[in-house]
Design goal:
Layout: H1 15-19, H2 23-28, E1 30-38, E2 48-53, E3 58-62, E4 68-73, E5 76-83, E6 90-91, E7 95-97, E8 102-109, E9 117-119, E10 127-129, E11 138-141, E12 153-156, E13 158-162, E14 165-169, E15 171-173, E16 176-178, E17 180-184, E18 187-191, E19 193-197, E20 203-212, E21 217-228, E22 231-237
Parallel strand pairs: 1-8
Antiparallel strand pairs: 1-4, 2-3, 2-5, 5-6, 5-7, 9-10, 11-12, 12-17, 13-14, 14-19, 15-16, 17-18, 18-20, 19-20, 20-21, 21-22
Length: about 240
């Protein structure tokens, strides 16, 4: 489902709790680290980065003066997002943490108001919706939901149903175009255009395709992703 941008209101489970865990618990913990930038690739300081597990336990930290963050979480499935006041949140699909030493994430924040309202012309105390809301990424949680509790998330600018499929288009901010982003666990696909099939949960993405995992990155002209059970099958066209 799509979400409206919100300022994060979090119940903080201090990061120091993870670091204060016993030796055996720390050995099982995974460090989540990465960088938060804006659309100009400038590092964003004091951005909140939040990881929430399936029982709604939250681990929260804040980026430093270099826009970087790092914190420990125990094994589990986590939804991870980043936000700061004045920016729309950035999030990705749930990630399975299984005791890896570390997992790296990058977030890019788009500046936008918390609420797209403006004063009316005749009454400055009466606010009315802007005719054209500020451009931002929208998010769809799509199937399949695997036995591990994972599912894909699509970040997009425009969404159009086409029979048994959904076409997702790039986000346009001014004269700049930003890709549709498909995430599933540690898999990330970026492309200009993406079609998702509601029949078999497959996707076909075209235009400036970039396929990334935590270990590799490749580019091509098109990509197809289908599921065999819980596992995605990737076919990248050069």
């Amino acid at each position: 489902m799509s979400r409206n941008p919100v300022s994060l209101v979090v119940v903080v489970v201090m990061v120091t709790i993870s670091f204060a865990a016993s030796g055996s618990e720390r050995l099982k913990s995974t460090e989540l680290d990465g960088v938060v930038t804006d659309l100009n690739d400038t590092r964003v300081l004091m951005a909140e980065v939040e990881a929430v597990d399936t029982k709604y336990k939250k681990f929260v930290t804040e980026t430093d003066s270099e826009g970087t963050f790092a914190f420990l979480v125990p094994p589990g499935v986590y939804r991870i997002r980043a936000a700061r006041e004045g920016y729309c949140e950035s999030r990705r699909a749930p990630v399975a943490v299984t005791g890896q030493k570390s997992l790296k994430f990058s977030f890019q924040l788009i500046g936008c108001p918390t609420v797209d309202y403006k004063p009316s012309d005749d009454d400055l105390t009466n606010y009315t919706p802007r005719p054209e809301p500020s451009p931002r990424y929208h998010y769809d949680d799509v199937r399949p939901v695997t036995s591990d509790g994972l599912w894909p998330v699509v970040s997009y600018g425009k969404r159009e149903p086409e029979g048994t499929s959904i076409r997702y288009s790039s986000l346009v901010v001014g004269t700049r175009k930003f890709p549709v982003i498909y995430t599933f666990n540690m898999l990330t696909v970026k492309a200009d255009d993406m079609v998702y099939s509601t029949l078999d949960s497959s996707i076909h993405a075209t235009g400036h395709v970039v396929w990334e995992t935590d270990r590799t990155s490749q580019s091509g002209s098109a990509i197809r992703i289908s599921f065999q059970g819980d596992k995605p099958k990737v076919n990248l066209e050069e």
